[in-house]
Amino acid sequence: MFTEFKIDGDAEEPYVDVKVYERALPLLNKLESWVRYALAEFRDLKSSYAKTMFRLLKQFRTTGYAYFSKEDFFELLDMPKSYWNSPSNVDKFVIKPIKEELTPLFRGLTVRKKYGKGRGKPVIGYSFTWKPEKKDANDFSQGQLQDERQKLFNIQHNGELTEQEKWRAIDKVKGLTLGSTEKQALADKQAEHDKKIRDQARQEALAELRKGFGNHA
């Protein structure tokens, strides 16, 4: 967002000169429409990309839709130039953490790529949609327990996240080591599978016993 800055600490009244990315000016000129958010939510985000996108999406919190051209998306998130021709890096290191960390905070969050015409159908933009908030909605903390319940609900009922992304998102919300929820989920699945095998074996054994009794009758 800031393309240049100059610090003069030796002046009688020290100051900082900042040059703002021109296309970001509308965001700064409409602060009242996007600075409203709980500081705790922002503070708990780990990815710098998720933090920046959180601030940007909050500008549109009551509309539930935001679109960024590829140029603006790269500039506003200050991505490495090497990512420009590497969609896989954008997906892995930018989009993935944004989805995992913001899905708990934006109900029904989806991220879509817009493709242009021409060879290879290049990505030309990114759109974000979610359930819009009411203008008078109380979107601040309702208490740690209730906040966590809402975040987990948003994760579990988001059809865009893969199972692995949901597990990682849950780990982050609960403050667990990444992989903890996945490990427990896989263990639960294995236990359920083993139980089905045991139940099936028991049913087959009972059927054989009944068959045996029937033959002796």
UniProtKB/TrEMBL annotation:
A GO term for molecular function: DNA-directed DNA polymerase activity
Q: Which UniProt keywords apply?
A: Plasmid
Region spans: Disordered: 181-200
Q: Where are the transmembrane segments?
A: none
Q: Which residues form the Initiator Rep protein WH1 domain?
A: 11-58
Which GO biological process annotations does it have? DNA replication initiation
Composition bias (Basic and acidic residues) maps to: 185-200
A Pfam family per the record? Rep3_C
Q: Which family does it belong to?
A: Belongs to the initiator RepB protein family.
Name of the molecule in the record = Putative replication protein rep
Q: What is the lineage of its organism?
A: Bacteria, Bacillati, Bacillota, Bacilli, Lactobacillales
